């Protein structure tokens, strides 16, 4: 504990973490916690949430408790703090009994600034952790990934529901709940469940301007995952699939294509999952193909893309998962391919869940909102931010809609034909069969059900099947029909369909890309060029190699030594002294003393004409 107010906090930011100034609402949050107030903080991934509680923990009397949902996240954050020279530790099941006793001893002696704990460890009486903490002065309590308290959210952790008792056990300690993903309803739920209704709220916004959003239809142009990844060979990324089987198959296919790709799902052993995660964190250019079991707590800043091979469960889940890209602020991509069958499967999962009907209704609405977002014909970023209650003026210029605007057409008549066909088929069939009827395809199923006799037989032969599939998706997205999982994906009309079928309403629909513009299929965009000149490239590579060696010696991920942005600044400015190096963004006193000379040697070697860069 150092003591002091916001001036001391600014000094710590510079001397320990190597940053010249706070960003966004960081300073306001820190000021609130230093003054003993509670806070609810919503800050986008990569926005610097950790500093909001780390710095006050160092300045207030006692130890800062950080509740974190994952052991891997605790390890990474503590390792990073130790590299900065901050007295931090964690208590979890990965520690041997003797190591746990050492941490407890340091806690009793007042030697720690921060202690990371899982909610289970904190609340279970048999661990003795709560009794231990009651013998200790608590500086503050930080509840990270606070959206885990939302019982029907995408990352629910039942253990989080018990964290409201911390207010009773430690009434003098300010509490802060932090998350990157929470719409207004989830924020209210967090505040209520954690008894933070009187907490000051700091909402920094949801926009991640460095992420480019692209959505493709399965089987359509640009929907091939390997084609998307090919120009990104050597970049780190995450590929999400809905099933374990697809994870395994996709990882194998990518590995055969020359990618350093590895599967990750809950069906693998804990040792296999740990090896995969460590390889992803510490090596360059690794791709993890995973179910949603992978991702929370991933602190790797240089993930350049997140790809979804299937539709996620909600806008919230999609935002959370894509937010793992570009934490360093450099250009990153969020790519997705999906189809109507994804909607059927996810709707079935909701219907088969143990949730009550009210929560099923909420989950269906969230899924519908994501499908609608996929099918929009306007800026994706503006639409996503609007979902979270944030206004975005104009178009972002960094999503597929802005970069390649889709054509629209008056879809009233095709929509009426499609909905009429669903009615005449007694709302018992999915899109594929309805399209066969509309196009006059003489299939066995059509003959078996006598649908050649329907008035809608063949009335849609003027449109290709691909365009009819686009009509079907958009009618679902716009709420004119819904997918009934109980009827094996049958399309059922909603009350909104009646005015449209009567001609009382008209609608604009997107043209399906391949049918509308076969000659304008775009090549996959090349990855952003690095902010390193050809002259600086050899030094940049030498600095990265030296960082990898130091990281291996310290047994930490390379970015814990220095972020890419710091090495790029080294390559550009070529500091010649330790004092000059201290002026570089991301260089604090502890890291300067530990690693400064090693990087100065590399820079000095690059500065001598005719001499090769040092290899260690």
CATH topology of the largest domain: Rossmann fold
User: Which stretches of 5+ consecutive residues score pLDDT under 50?
Assistant: 514-530, 608-616
Tell me about the biggest sheet? 7 strands, parallel
Content of β-strand:
5-15%
Tell me the name of the CATH class of the largest domain: Alpha Beta
Percent helix among the residues?
40-55%
**Helix count, per DSSP?**
28
Number of strands: 17
- The average pLDDT is 87
Q: Which value, in Å, is the CA radius of gyration?
A: 27 Å
How does CATH name the architecture of the largest domain? 3-Layer(aba) Sandwich
**Cα end-to-end separation:** 39 Å
Tally of structural domains:
4
CATH superfamily of the largest domain: P-loop containing nucleotide triphosphate hydrolases
**Inertia-based shape:** globular
Indicate the structural class: alpha/beta
Main-sheet strand order equals: 3-4-2-5-6-1-7
Structure description:
Helix content is 43%, strand content 13%. The chain is α/β, with parallel strands linked by helices. The chain folds into four domains: 198 residues, Rossmann fold (3-Layer(aba) Sandwich); 193 residues, P-loop containing nucleotide triphosphate hydrolases (Rossmann fold, 3-Layer(aba) Sandwich), CATH 3.40.50; 112 residues, Winged helix-like DNA-binding domain superfamily/Winged helix DNA-binding domain (Arc Repressor Mutant, subunit A), CATH 1.10.10; 71 residues, DNA polymerase, domain 1, CATH 1.10.150.80. Strands 3-4-2-5-6-1-7 form a seven-stranded parallel sheet, with helices on both faces. Helix 8 links the parallel strand 5 and strand 6.
């Amino acid at each position: 504990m150092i003591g002091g107010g916001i001036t001391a906090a600014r000094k710590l930011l510079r001397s320990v973490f190597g940053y010249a100034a706070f960003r966004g609402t960081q300073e306001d949050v820190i000021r609130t916690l230093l003054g003993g107030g509670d806070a609810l903080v919503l800050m986008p991934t990569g926005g610097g949430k950790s500093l909001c509680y780390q710095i006050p923990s160092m300045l207030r009397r006692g130890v800062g408790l950080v509740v974190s949902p994952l052991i891997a996240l605790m390890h990474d954050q503590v390792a990073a703090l130790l590299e900065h020279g901050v007295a931090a530790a964690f208590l979890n099941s990965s520690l041997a009994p003797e190591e746990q006793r050492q941490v407890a001893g340091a806690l009793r002696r007042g030697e720690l600034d921060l202690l990371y704990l899982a909610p289970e460890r904190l609340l279970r009486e048999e661990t003795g952790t709560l009794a231990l903490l009651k013998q200790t002065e608590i500086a503050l309590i930080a509840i990270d990934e606070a959206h885990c308290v939302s019982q029907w959210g995408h990352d629910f952790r039942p253990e989080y529901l018990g964290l409201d008792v911390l207010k009773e056990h430690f009434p003098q300690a300010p509490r802060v709940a932090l998350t990157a993903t929470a719409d207004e309803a989830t924020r209210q739920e967090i505040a209520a469940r954690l008894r933070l209704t009187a907490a000051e709220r700091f909402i920094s916004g949801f926009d991640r301007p460095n992420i480019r959003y692209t959505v493709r239809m399965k089987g359509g142009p640009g929907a091939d995952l390997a084609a998307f990844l090919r120009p990104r060979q050597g970049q780190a990324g995450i590929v999400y699939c809905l099933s374990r089987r697809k994870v395994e198959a996709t990882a194998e296919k990518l590995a055969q294509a020359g990618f350093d790709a590895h599967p990750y799902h809950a069906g693998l052993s804990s040792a296999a999952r740990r090896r995969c995660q460590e390889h992803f964190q510490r090596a360059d250019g690794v791709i993890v193909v995973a179910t949603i079991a992978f991702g929370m707590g991933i602190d790797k800043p240089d993930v350049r893309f997140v790809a979804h091979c299937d539709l996620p469960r909600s806008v919230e889940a999609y935002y959370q998962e894509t937010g793992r890209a570009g934490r360093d602020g450099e250009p990153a991509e969020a790519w997705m391919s999906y189809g109507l069958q994804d909607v059927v499967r996810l709707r079935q999962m909701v219907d088969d869940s143990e949730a009550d009907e009210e929560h099923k209704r909420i989950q269906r609405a969230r899924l519908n909102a994501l499908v609608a977002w996929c099918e929009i014909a306007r800026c994706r970023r503006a639409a996503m931010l609007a979902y979270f209650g944030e206004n975005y003026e104009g178009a972002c210029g960094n999503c597929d809609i802005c970069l390649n605007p889709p054509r629209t057409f008056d879809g009233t008549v095709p929509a009426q034909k499609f909905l009429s066909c669903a009615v005449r088929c007694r709302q018992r069939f999915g899109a594929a069969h309805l399209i066969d009827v509309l196009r006059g395809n003489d299939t066995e199923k059509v003959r078996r059900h006598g649908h050649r006799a329907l008035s809608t037989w063949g009335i849609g032969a003027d449109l290709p099947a691909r365009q009819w599939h686009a009509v079907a998706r958009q009618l679902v997205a716009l709420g004119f029909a819904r997918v009934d999982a109980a009827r094996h994906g049958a399309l059922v009309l909603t009350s909104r369909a009646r005015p449209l079928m009567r001609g009382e309403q008209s609608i604009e629909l997107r043209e399906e890309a391949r049918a509308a513009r076969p000659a304008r299929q775009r090549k996959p965009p090349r990855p952003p060029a690095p902010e390193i000149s050809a002259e600086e490239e050899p030094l940049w590579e030498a600095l990265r190699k030296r960082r990898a060696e130091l990281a291996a010696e310290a047994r930490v991920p390379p970015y814990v030594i220095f972020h890419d942005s710091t090495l790029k600044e080294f390559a550009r400015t070529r500091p010649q002294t330790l004092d000059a190096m201290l002026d570089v963004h991301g260089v604090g006193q502890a890291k300067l003393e530990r690693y400064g000379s090693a990087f100065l040697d590399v820079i000095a070697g690059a500065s001598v004409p005719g001499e090769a860069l040092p290899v260690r």
